[in-house]
Every structure is written in C-alpha cells, then in structure tokens.
Amino acid sequence: MKGIRIAVDGYSSTGKSTMARQLAAALNFRYIDTGAMYRAVTYWALEQGYFQSGSLDKAKLITSLSRLNLDFQFSESEGKPVIHVNGRAVEREIRGAEVASKVSIVAQISEVRRFLVKQQQAIAEAGSVVMDGRDIASVVMPDAELKIFMTADPKVRAQRRFAELQSKGMEMTLEEVAKNLEERDYLDTHREDSPLIQTEDALVLDNTNLGMEEQLNLALGWAKERQA
Question: Mind telling me which Pfam families this protein's record contains (predicted)?
C-alpha cells in the first residue's frame, strides 16, 4: 500500500491529536502534531518574557525565531514523540492553561506561521505522514491524498478539555474552559493569515457521539480507500 499524506484539521478539543496519532500508528506512518509546534513557540514567548501585562511584543518574538530550534523526539514515559525547545522536552508545559490562552495570539503572526509551515512542509515531502492542526489541508498539504475535518458539539468539547485539565491537576472551572474554547475558535477562524477552514474536499468527522475506537475505524477506512 502506498504511503499517502493525511491532513487532519479541526477545532480545539475535538481529539485531533489523539485520533491522528492513533491513525498514524495503525498505518505505521509518521505523526506530526503541528499544534504542539505553535504551543512551543508560545511557551518560548512566555519564557522569554515577550508577554507583558497580557500583550505580546511581536517584534521581539519574530527576531528570536532564529534562536529557536524545535524538534520531535520519542519519549518513553509519554509513549509518543514529544516536542523539544532547544533540546528541552516541554510536553507538560505547553499543555497548561497559560499557553492555551495565548497560543491563538501567537498563531496569528504571519512570520511565525511561515517559520513553522516551512518545517512542516519539509516533513510532509517524504509522505507516509499524518499531520494535524488548523491549516494542514488548506496551506501545509493542500494536495494531501486524504483530508479530515474534525468537529464536535462545543459543550462536549468543553467537558473533554475540563476533564483533561483536571487529570493533570490544573485548576480551571468548566465555565472558564468553555470561554477559552470559544475565544480560541473565534481567533482561529477569523485570523487573516491561514484561518481554520473546512476545505471543500475534506471529509467531516463529527465525534460528538463517537468513541475513540469508532472514530479511528472510520478514519482508517477512509485512509485505506485512498491507499488502494
């Protein structure tokens, strides 16, 4: 079977990364979490002090990109490839509420997007890859053999995100989580550069009422059709 390229896009907390990672494992493909890359840049901006009183110094962040090295390395404890910032694993740090609340701000910056898209496209050239994010089908891999757009009811998404944060010992109320998701949805779909869109040729996977095994089997069936 041929090594196709699979683009997985969709809203936050729809389980894109989990499904994409499972799909890649089932197909023996490489998995790339592009959302982790944007979160890593956001974490870098916070760590460097580029956010002051809630505002981002974009010029400083853009200038600093030449000093920022991102790569994925397999983690035995996580059981998956995790992103490293200048050689340091930051998987837990990038999943926190502070990064989540600011990542859409960083993702709006065209220079950041170009910096990351260039890396993502270089990875995609080899094929046999599953890549998830918000502009994979529209920008990074517009000629991908399979494009999947994931969505779910906002209330269900908020509950999932709330449960995830609780399991990690992070304190946020369900109302705060729902508000954060609503704000991220607006920023993701309204930014000028590469907004989140459902491309015309994407297959919609609404997992509001689907379990992980059900959605994986659905996506796997689509992938095998493209490989035939």
Answer: Cytidylate_kin
Per the structure, the count of domains in the chain is 1
13 is in an annotated binding site: yes
Question: Residue 16, annotated ligand binder?
Answer: yes
**Residue 15 is assigned to a ligand binding site:** yes
Provide the β-strand partners of residue 8.
132, 148
Q: Are 160 and 16 in contact (CB under 8 A)?
A: no
Q: How far apart are CA 49 and CA 217, in angstroms?
A: 44
pLDDT band at 1 (very low <50, low <70, confident <90, very high): low
User: What's residue 61's pLDDT?
Assistant: 98
> Mean of the per-residue pLDDT values for the chain?
93
What is the domain-level CATH number for residue 75?
Answer: 3.40.50.300
Helix (H, G, I), strand (E, B) or coil at 208: coil
- Residue 151 marked as a ligand binder: no
Question: Does the pLDDT of residue 116 top 60, yes or no?
Answer: yes
49 is in an annotated binding site: no
Q: Is 18 annotated as a binding residue?
A: yes
User: Does residue 80 register a pLDDT over 90?
Assistant: no
10 labeled binding residue: yes
